[in-house]
């Protein structure tokens, strides 16, 4: 049997992506075979496709991390998921695994989560990587608690919008920055108490927002962190988390950092364990079903236009055009 899939045979630009026929995957031991309904794009997909982040890739290689769909078969050893069950997940197209821009995928059971009733496959796929990343940043790394003050730059981006929604769901007081008035209105509609423009006096806005106390948490989503602004803005024992900026080498104010007792952590989502990510997925499924988090969709493409989808996201993420508010989804089924 054969399926349609987007794939590359060598790293390169969006034009390296071709859509054609590949053999159907088979669910091996501990795996499930999923008929994919929707996938979603992330910056890591662009980096892997371009070779910017070197990884061992099968040839041909199917890109894509996120998926949602329906189980067609359960491999040997899988007893808690059966054909017909809806599932969603991420962590594909990484570390030698085939990706999700295909009609069918074989996924390890540990990376497939039960889909909540009433939530569309498109919404689940769009939320997968960004939702798990945001959850790890807020709760595993920052230890965010109800009533705490948090600042999120880029509050309407893919991860940024998830950070804002989850922090609000957790009862935190959220300040975020955006690039224009339209994005400010969008962030406020999600429940951010105060929205600042990137052109504003950020330290002054943070001080006013926290009543001079300082921030309990700062989740840095931008590629050039400014520690000379971040460290003075933090409350004693505040937590800063880095989830972007691969090439950044900023100046760091060591003295004020340790005198305040601050912490600084960073992580790549795909290095988190399956158990850690499954805990995130449980909350995400519940919050999606309850309407506490929503994932804005910036663009929708069919599988036949996978290259165009990559080009659209790349123009904003790497070209800094800034037109993408939310996720780029590839609808397959």
Question: Which key features would you list for this structure?
Answer:
31% helix, alpha/beta, 333 residues, Quinone Oxidoreductase, Chain A, domain 1, six-stranded parallel β-sheet
Explain what the structure shows.
- The chain contains nine helices and 15 strands.
- The protein is of the alpha/beta class and 333 residues long.
- It folds into two domains: 150 residues, Medium-chain alcohol dehydrogenases, catalytic domain (Quinone Oxidoreductase, Chain A, domain 1), CATH 3.90.180.10; 140 residues, Medium-chain alcohol dehydrogenases, catalytic domain (Quinone Oxidoreductase, Chain A, domain 1, Alpha-Beta Complex).
Overview in brief:
The chain is an alpha/beta fold. Helix content is 31%, strand content 26%.
Structural class: alpha/beta
Q: Helices and strands, in N-to-C order?
A: EEEHEEEEHEHEHEHEHEHEHEHE
- The CATH architecture of the largest domain would be Alpha-Beta Complex
Number of separate structural domains: 2
Rounded to the nearest angstrom, the radius of gyration is 20 Å
Determine the mean pLDDT: 94
- Spatial separation of the terminal alpha carbons: 17 Å
- Fraction of residues in helix: 25-40%
Q: Briefly, what CATH class of the largest domain? A: Alpha Beta
Shape: globular
Tally of helical runs = 9
């Amino acid at each position: 049997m054969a399926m349609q899939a987007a794939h590359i045979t060598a790293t390169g630009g969006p034009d390296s992506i071709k859509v054609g026929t590949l053999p159907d995957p088979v669910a091996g031991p501990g795996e499930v075979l999923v008929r994919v309904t929707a996938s979603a794009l992330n910056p890591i997909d662009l980096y892997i496709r371009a070779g910017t982040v070197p990884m061992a890739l099968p040839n041909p290689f199917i890109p894509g991390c996120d998926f949602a769909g329906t189980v067609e078969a359960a491999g040997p050893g899988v007893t808690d998921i059966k054909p017909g069950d809806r599932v969603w997940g991420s962590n594909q197209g990484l570390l030698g695994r085939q990706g999700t821009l295909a009609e069918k995928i074989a996924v390890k059971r540990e990376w497939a989560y039960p889909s909540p009733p009433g939530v569309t496959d498109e919404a689940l796929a769009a939320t997968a990587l960004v939702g798990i990343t945001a959850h790890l940043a807020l709760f595993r790394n920052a230890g965010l608690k109800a009533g705490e003050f948090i600042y999120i730059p880029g509050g309407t981006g893919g991860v940024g919008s998830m950070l804002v929604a989850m922090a609000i769901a957790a009862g935190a007081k959220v300040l975020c920055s955006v690039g224009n008035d339209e994005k400010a209105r969008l962030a406020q509609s999600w429940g951010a108490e105060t929205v600042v423009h990137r052109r504003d006096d950020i330290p002054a806005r943070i001080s006013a927002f926290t009543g001079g106390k300082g921030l309990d948490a700062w989740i840095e989503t931008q590629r050039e962190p400014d520690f000379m602004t971040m460290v003075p803005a933090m409350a004693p024992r505040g937590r800063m988390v880095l989830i972007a900026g691969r090439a950044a080498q900023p100046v760091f104010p060591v003295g004020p950092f340790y005198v305040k007792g601050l912490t600084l952590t960073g992580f790549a989502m795909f290095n988190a364990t399956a158990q850690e990510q499954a805990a995130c997925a449980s909350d995400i499924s519940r919050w999606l079903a309850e309407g506490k988090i929503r994932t804005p969709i910036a663009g929708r493409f069919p599988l036949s236009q996978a290259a165009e989808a990559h080009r659209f996201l790349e123009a904003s993420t790497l070209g800094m055009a800034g037109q993408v508010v939310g996720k780029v989804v590839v609808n397959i089924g």
